[in-house]
Amino acid sequence: MSVKKPQALLFDLGGVLVDIDFGRALSAWAPHSSLSIDGLRQAFKFDLPYEQHERGEITAAAYFDHLASMLKLSATHAEISNGWNSIFVGELTQTRLIVEAMRALLPCHAFTNTNATHMAAWTRLFPGVVQAFDRIFASHEMGLRKPERAAFDHITRAIGVAAGDILFFDDLLENVNAASEAGLQAVHVRSPADVTQALRAFHLALPPAAQ
Fold first, then answer.
1. In terms of CATH, what superfamily is 8-17+92-210?
2. How far is residue 125's CA from residue 46's CA, in Å, rounded to a whole number?
3. pLDDT for 28-43, tens place per residue?
4. Percent of the chain with pLDDT over 90
5. Would you call 69 exposed, middle or buried from its count of C-beta atoms within 10 A (0-12, 13-18, 19+)?
6. Radius of gyration of the chain (CA)
7. Class of domain 22-87
8. What is the mean pLDDT of residues 132-150?
9. What is the spatial distance between Cα 7 and Cα 126, in angstroms, rounded to a whole number?
10. What DSSP string describes 80-126?
11. Which of 46, 47, 159, 170 could form a disulfide with 12, with the two C-beta atoms 3.0–4.6 Å apart?
12. pLDDT digits (tens, 9 = 90+) for 145-178
């Protein structure tokens, strides 16, 4: 890892600041499906319509229709939406405290692959996470998503900091590698401890309350 001190921090949300579990959605949909829970697990895919939904290229209604077909659901859009939003387990408070502490030193932004339905839910559920950042870049609003190079280039231009001066945190190695290829300094996050360790490596001191 380079030890060049960053001028801005960029955080993923899901898996870094918010704990998520797509299995909860499958459990919520199970009563509406002709498939078993194991069948639902096998049928659900992060497929092309999923990516299109996250880029805002198709509506929630169109994606929910796709889910109904793929998962053999006899459910209304409202019932599918309720299951869709059940993935949010809770806030990873330790990481939020780290962001709040770092924001006193550096600009702190978030970059999340999301969609309008999910964004409305996590904005309501986790206001502290939303308020922790200077700006949140949402894939469906940008029309770009991780791990696309164009997404990282867009954010670099938007925040006005050179790619090499941005330190990025994400729980998916694919996104970490893509950020590195785009010139960002990037950290693979498996727990809040990884965030703390990386900041220390870059000589960014955390106050005791955030450690």
1. HAD superfamily/HAD-like (3.40.50.1000)
2. 24
3. 999 999 999 999 999 9
4. 92
5. exposed
6. 18
7. mainly alpha
8. 98
9. 26
10. HHHHHGGGEEEE-HHHHHHHHHHHTTS-EEEEE---HHHHHHHHHH-
11. 170
12. 999 999 999 999 999 999 999 999 999 999 999 9
